[in-house]
């Protein structure tokens, strides 16, 4: 009896040690529903429980209740019903489908009461609590896939919390626009809420932020062999019962998005759910976050804050101007501290088709394995 009494706390503390040493805490800020790359990014993150301790999925921008429903449904059906969901600050709805976008019909009859995990109706308080509980030596990684209203609201009022955070964002345009040609343009996540982006870009982070600007992320699509493998994992080959549900659920979500307006979204290569994904801005961002986490956790030189296989990144001092452009400040490296640099993936390190294929193969390999769950103790 005495032995067991001592063993349990030991096991618990060993598990806690294992969890904190081998994974980074992650919050995802997402406008899921608008474009379908958020759902792909979230699915990939769900599969990367080897590096991410997923603490919170926070909905951002326009109809944040509708977006929280989409995130909760993907988490519940895809295999991570334990992850807390937070409802972020709503903003004016815009014109598309209830302020949610083409994925809106996928909500169907799902309600937040159907979600087994926690739902924080005040998502900003949940974000603030995560940041406050973190520290510069054990920061929360923030995967920013949306306009930055939530992040600006919390960090604007408590700027010291940025020292406990590590931002990896889909954000900005450095020298190319959505057609991958110069000039730079106001990128959606910045232009949708310029003052919020100005606040977030102006923070002093504990570690330089990372961004996947449209310069590279607009080119990334899951196509060819990788997409065929995704279809197989989704049950295209006859739908074996024992397959993990994640790929099937993601494909269903993608089809709904495509059929309700997504098909008109631009991409470098034509796409349909039969043969390719649309442009995967947010999925590239999630890939970069996982890669940087691998580097931080395991000391791998292939993956660091500024190195991701297939991509080249530059340390830049970026400032958001009043029109929503992300301007590079020349010679600012010297003036600004390290803490205000962004590592921006501005180019590929190989021909771009090969880079897109390599990232596609990597993410599908993970998504096909399904959502990650804690090994039984
Ligand atoms: C947001 O979406 C939800 C889910 O479809 C819907 O019930 C609600 O009416 C929408 N909110 C607004 C303000 O349109
Ligand atoms: C922009 O973000 C701020 C929070 O920083 C929020 O108060 C405001 O409503 C947002 N504006 C729009 C247009 O989304
Ligand atoms: C995918 O299918 C669409 C529609 O059938 C077609 O226009 C497009 O060329 C195909 N794309 C690829 C990458 O094969
Ligand atoms: C980085 O290298 C490690 C160790 O070789 C490997 O397991 C991992 O998959 C690599 N990551 C990427 C994104 O290539
Ligand atoms: C981008 O990378 C390619 C090689 O993949 C290289 O040929 C090209 O010069 C690079 N462009 C810039 C602007 O650095």
Automatic annotation (TrEMBL):
Keyword terms of this UniProt record: Glycosidase, Hydrolase, Signal
Signal peptide start-end: 1-21
SUPFAM superfamilies the record matches: Nucleoside hydrolase
Record-level Gene Ontology MF annotations: purine nucleosidase activity
One Gene Ontology cellular component: cytosol
Coiled coil segments of this chain: none
Residue ranges of every copy of the Inosine/uridine-preferring nucleoside hydrolase domain listed in the record: 27-266
Gene Ontology biological process: purine nucleoside catabolic process
Matching Gene3D superfamilies: Ribonucleoside hydrolase-like (3.90.245.10)
Membership in a protein family: Belongs to the IUNH family.
Record-given protein name: Inosine/uridine-preferring nucleoside hydrolase domain-containing protein
Organism the protein comes from: Cafeteria roenbergensis
Lineage: Eukaryota, Sar, Stramenopiles, Bigyra, Opalozoa
């Amino acid at each position: 009896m005495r032995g067991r009494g001592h063993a349990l706390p030991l096991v618990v503390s060993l598990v806690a040690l294992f969890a904190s040493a081998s994974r980074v805490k992650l919050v995802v800020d997402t406008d899921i529903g608008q474009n379908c790359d958020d759902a792909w990014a979230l699915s990939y993150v769900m599969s990367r429980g080897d590096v991410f301790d997923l603490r919170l999925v926070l909905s951002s921008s326009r109809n944040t209740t509708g977006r929280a429903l989409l995130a909760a449904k993907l988490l519940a059906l895809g295999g991570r019903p334990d992850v807390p969901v937070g409802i972020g600050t709503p903003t004016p709805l815009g014109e598309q489908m209830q302020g949610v976008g083409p994925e809106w019909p996928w909500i169907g009859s799902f309600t937040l009461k159907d979600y087994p995990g926690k739902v924080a109706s005040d998502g900003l308080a949940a974000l603030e609590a995560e940041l406050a509980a973190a520290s510069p030596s054990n920061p929360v990684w923030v995967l920013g896939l949306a306009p930055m209203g939530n992040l600006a609201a919390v960090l604007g009022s408590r700027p010291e919390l940025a020292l406990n955070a590590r931002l990896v964002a889909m954000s900005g345009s450095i020298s190319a626009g959505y057609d991958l040609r110069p000039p730079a343009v106001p990128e959606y996540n910045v232009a949708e809420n310029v003052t919020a982006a100005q606040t977030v870009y102006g923070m002093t982070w504990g570690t330089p932020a990372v961004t996947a600007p449209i310069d590279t992320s607009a080119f990334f699509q899951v196509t060819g062999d990788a997409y065929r493998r995704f279809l197989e994992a989704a049950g295209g080959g006859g739908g074996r019962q024992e397959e993990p549900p994640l790929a099937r659920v993601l494909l269903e979500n993608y089809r709904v998005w495509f059929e309700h307006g997504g098909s008109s979204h631009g991409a470098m290569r034509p796409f349909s759910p039969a043969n390719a994904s649309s442009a995967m801005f947010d999925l590239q961002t999630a890939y970069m976050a996982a890669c940087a986490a691998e580097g931080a956790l395991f000391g791998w030189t292939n993956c660091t804050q500024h190195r991701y296989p297939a991509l080249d990144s530059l340390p830049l001092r970026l400032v958001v101007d009043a029109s929503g452009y992300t301007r590079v400040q020349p010679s600012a490296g010297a003036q600004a501290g390290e803490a205000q640099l962004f590592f921006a993936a501005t180019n590929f390190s190989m021909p771009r088709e090969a880079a897109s294929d390599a990232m596609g193969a990597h993410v599908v390999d993970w998504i096909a394995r399904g959502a990650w769950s804690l090994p039984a103790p």
